[in-house]
## 1
Amino acid sequence: PDFMAMKKSELYSSLWFGCDELRGGSRYDPKSYMLFHHKDQFEMKRIFTVAAIIFVLSAMQASFTKAEPPWRALPLATDGKVDAAWKQIGGGRFVVDDGTLRGESDETGMGMLLYSKEAFGNCQIRVVFRGKETRSNAGVFIRIEDGVLKIAENKEVRKKQSREEEKDESEKELGPWYPVHRGFEVQISEIGDEQHRTGSIYSLAKAAPLPPLATDGWRTMVITLKGNLIEVDVDGKHVCSFDSETTSFPDRKQYWEPKRENKRPHVGYIGLQNHGPNDVVWFKEVSVRPLSE
């Protein structure tokens, strides 16, 4: 409800009701006020009016303030192994490390861990992560088309690729390149520029400067999906807003950057990226919740 749009008559009625309640309701007898000095009477009325305003506004706020929906944690590990709902695509792997998921990459190239159990529409996604070094690179993929499920079924053993083979795979949107071009990546990297650092929509939308990194290295990212809008907060600071319906994307400069012309779905899958050799990133939590009404 829009309190500012209330009719004056309704507001005045509410305030008078509050005044009347504070003065004793129906037991209030105007004749009794003749016992007071005019000045005292004026002061009492003013006090009652202010108190009534506070009473009514507080009651209105309490009536319409709703608690945020609870977070639902997605299972990361079960019996010491990566939970079965997560499927590895492309190179490298994820392993369980003290209850967290640790991304590892090797000569087989970039990969992604897909949460295959469900797709997500309008919601918030909370990810708690830590890089081994400030240069550690990873990402959170969102709104991936459902064609990624078929790719996840491919168990072909990957081999080391040349740069040309990698470029060809990217242009054909194969393997780990499918989510790059058929989804959006929220970047994880402490040293990238504004279009390639933590909180940015990789090469598509800039991220503001980040809050200082905690001494233990952990960051909390909250991604809000609402229609064509994507909002990103890092450690409580809003750093990025992105409208996926925009037509004014920055130019695509490299084959590893996402294609601009592909339309991403509003309901899609999510995944965690393992980027390349020496890019070690831990993920301690991945949780989701519906948007507040």
## 2
Amino acid sequence: FGSPDGDLDNVLFCYDVRLKAWWTYTLDVDEPILNMIHIDDKDNREGIGIITRHTVSEARKRMARILLVEDTPTNQDVALAILKKLGYRADVAGDGFEAMDALRNQPYDLVLMDCQMPGMDGYQATKEIRKPESGVLDPDIPVIAMTAHSLIGDREKCLEAGMDDYVSKPVDAATLAHTLDRWLGQRLRNADDDGDIIPAHPPAQEKGLDLPGELYDPEILINILMGDRELADTIIKGFLEDIPSQIEKLRQFVDQGEAGEAEIQAHKIKGAAGNIGSRVLQGLALTMEKSGNA
């Protein structure tokens, strides 16, 4: 049964006449659903749902394997939650070294790469991935940078490292969905693309403490998580358990005069604070990060 618009009435009609496959006239010719069409009969009416192009799309998402490279627990939780809600599954690597090990041992379709990490950062890791002698299973795997900077010049830095695209943190679910669809859709259908970076948001300069002054705005995280307040509460709890030790690490780096380590640590705190909606802490961490880079 074909439908030009795919509306709900037509879906209900399909149930009524026991059709087990339904598609629209705009269906792509490569959709595997074309090989799955059959009409129900009395022997197989139970336990089989209607197959739609949306079902196929969700199945394609489940087939995709994503590696999330992120060292901050709060940011890991937020990113994994968004990916799950978008229908994807992902493994986590805590730094560039773990990412390299994972890519050498497991086949992945895409990497979401944090840029600022201790040890081996995202830029260094991507450069290693692109080397033919790196030992990774796929040196050409799409790498999407996740950056809390979004500064002018980030695009060039990502390109130089071999990254394919980038999204800004805090991650916007709709933007991430579009970016993943662009790169995974291309990859899973073996389509060609120009490979150039199309930034999810235009680059903009960050501004010290020129951020809204709310100590904590719970709606920011709730919006990121697409309205899931229960999950937001869980992530906030994890943040409150983790952030004292992160601040203590920053204090120690400052006391020891380790400006580089302090910059990286402040960046971590800034990203986590931005994700959960603590704009004041985010602004303070940004100021310290810039001081470490001075």
## 3
Amino acid sequence: VRRQRQMCIRDSLSLALAVLTLGQQSCDNLPDEQFDKYVLMTRNGFIDREIVYNASGKATTEVSVSVSGSSDVAHDVEVEVEVYPDTLDQYNFEKFRTDSASYYDLAEHYTIPNPKLTIRKGEAYGVFDVVFDVKQMDKYKDFVLPLRIKSASDYLVSPKASRVMLMHILLTNFFSGAYGMSAQFDGAYINLNRTLSVIDEQTCFTYIGNIETTDENKADYRLEISVNPTDSLITLNAPGLDLQQEPSDRQNLKNVMVEDETEQRLYLQYSYVDPRDGRRKSFDGYLSQTITDR
């Protein structure tokens, strides 16, 4: 009985070894790439792209195109890209439906110097440039540039959304971005979120008082904030409104320590006549963001 048991164990081990050897041979005979390779946007879908506003008025950003898969690109691949507005139309409708006031605007005042690029043999990706004329752009619109891969000389163009990039254009300067706002406003304490959007290299706009981005007439309540880069003093402007900025050197941009974090703060003090009820309303407070958020 012991001899039979030993023989069974030996035969089982031999069979297992044979299976492992066959499996290894099968793997060795597989091609390097198991799946189709696709040409796609390296970053695809809806992508926020920060573009620094500079005095020259021109700003260039690179867009990357890749080939999917685990193996190297065996030879040069020629790719052509295009602007494809239909993708933005579809995105707007799917996200906002009938709320057309919230739709993103199709980008303007840009060029693509060469919409054709090459992904070189052995490289992971290729790039092309988009150049924006930031001085000509309407600063009060929310622009998206819909880019799509049009064709490729070899491999397949991705049939999915990965062939598309919806580039959401975010102009930036040295104090733009998302802030928290704390203030005494019209006799009450308010604590709201604010975004400072770029107008030029030293001016941003937001909305005055407690006006929200969802307010129907928000365009009538824009507050322009200019920061002098030399002394950090702030100048305010509110087109179309009776605005009075209180004379105070306390209205400035500066960094302050809050617990263990450094905050960038803009101190504001002003009053304005609200056209909705004819009352003058006062604001005394600040906008703040942690430096690490920038």
